[in-house]
Prior knowledge:
This protein is of the alpha+beta class. Helix content is 26%, strand content 28%. It has 12 helices and 17 strands. The protein has helices spanning 5-15, 20-27, 56-71, 146-161, 194-197, 213-227, 239-246, 300-311, 355-360, 411-418, 424-429, 446-454; strands at 32-36, 93-98, 110-121, 125-137, 165-168, 182-193, 207-211, 259-264, 270-279, 288-297, 316-324, 340-352, 368-375, 383-389, 395-399, 407-410, 434-435. α1 (5-15) packs across α4 (146-161) and α2 runs antiparallel to α4 (146-161). The radius of gyration is 24 Å and the shape is globular. The chain starts with a helix and ends in a 12-residue tail after the last helix. It binds coenzyme A. Coenzyme A binds next to β4 and α4. Homohexamer; trimer of dimers.
Amino acid sequence: MTQTPQQHFESALREAGPDAAAAEALAAHGLDLRLIPTPASADDVPAEPAISSEFPEVVALADWLRSVSRGFLDAEPDEKSLPSRYGAFVARRNIGVFDPTTAQPQLPVGTFGSFVTQLTVPGQSAVEAFAITAVTVAATHRRRGIARQMMEGELRAAVAAGLSVAVLTVSESSIYQRYGFAPSAPAATWVIDRKRAGFSAPATAGRLDYLSREQFRELAPVLHDRVRLASPGEIVPTGMHWDRFAGTLPGVKNTEALRFVQYRDSDGVVQGLVVYSLRENDADYTKTALDVSLLMTATDEAYAAMWRYLFEHDLIGDITLSLRSVDEPVRWMLADQRAAVVTVVDHQYVRILNIVTALQSRTYGSAGRVVLEVTDPLGIDAGRFAIDVDDFGQAVVTRDATAEADATLTTVELSALFIGGTSAATLVSAGRVTVRDAGATGPDSVTGRIDAMFRTPTEPRLSFWY
Ligand SMILES: CC(C)(COP(=O)(O)OP(=O)(O)OC[C@H]1O[C@@H](n2cnc3c(N)ncnc32)[C@H](O)[C@@H]1OP(=O)(O)O)[C@@H](O)C(=O)NCCC(=O)NCCS
């Protein structure tokens, strides 16, 4: 049976073993770098896995998850729920750093998880990406280079497997630019004062219905697959992410408040889904808070219908949505735009690992040529690259040391430009990109040409954490 590109990358990563250079550097400090065994396919998941010597790989994964919880300041995970999460790790590559001299040597002091996903890039297209998660180092072992060894080693493993891009979301903004990652898709939290807003939107012909969490769980991945290519920056959520939205992840508390609603168009096709919960305001029952954890729509009609549904709730004060676009059309559905308070943070981080493959995976907004001199803080991929875009927006990217460079930048700035949400003119003003015609503006300037090529009409976004 032929493998999909994603399956090819997954097996290459799982077969590769731990990175030799990282293992050697950690061994010099008495630490042991190991791959955590996880199932290669759903067929390898025992029907009822248990934390017992009968299933040593479940024991190892449970210990790894205990260390992840500890690293993220979470409580000790519920013992009963740990085995049920085993299936969520199918085809993943997870590593642990072990210190045999600790009081609990079975719990890794460093954890680093990854899975292969598809990153949406401009042009309704996607590229396979190395998604990084669960990066923790035990508080007893911090600031001595364990995270750096894990990151550098795992990025080398991703490159060796043939992946051209890595992605991650962050707990702290200050950690990842040193490894070449750029904040590439921001996340906006929208808090809208319902009564003040003066909402209006075009009429819609479909209908709304409540769903059970199980019905939502079934429909959500299908709808996301239809909409994800419209938003650069999106990746494919795993089953575990959908269980989190649906409240069907074992051991997750406070899911009783979740409500699920679908919008079907006049042909009966599901075009929108929303998940939300309500928080009563004891001091004023007309100011219950409505918190939306997911709003997904495939058409403008569904978008309008879902927002009307939220606004037509009675007894609601603020409507809050997080992980939204900075450029939500709802702004233009409000008579009083100041009823919406929008807070923006960095969210989806992207790091190019192979410049030619990554830049050729997207389309561009304008024909032309630009030559970029790129340096890489980890030395993974660097040099001078000519990007020639044809009238159809397709690029041919060639390594060309002889061409005169139009702009000089690092992997971080190139990765920020890559999915279209960052302006070259902004990066030049910030002193992060140097151009050969410094001070020039307008469409023929270097920044004008880069922005015409790279910028997208749709602001990149990502609708969940991973
Ligand atoms: C973030 C974390 C993984 C770092 O682990 P660590 O082993 O102490 O990191 P290292 O010693 O390898 O440090 C690597 C670099 O990151 C820097 N760094 C480490 N922790 C940092 C932090 N919290 N904020 C900013 N920079 C940090 C170090 O100064 C070092 O910089 P340098 O190599 O350029 O000199 C660890 O502090 C941790 O587990 N934190 C809690 C969980 C978390 O936030 N994980 C990140 C998930 S996105």
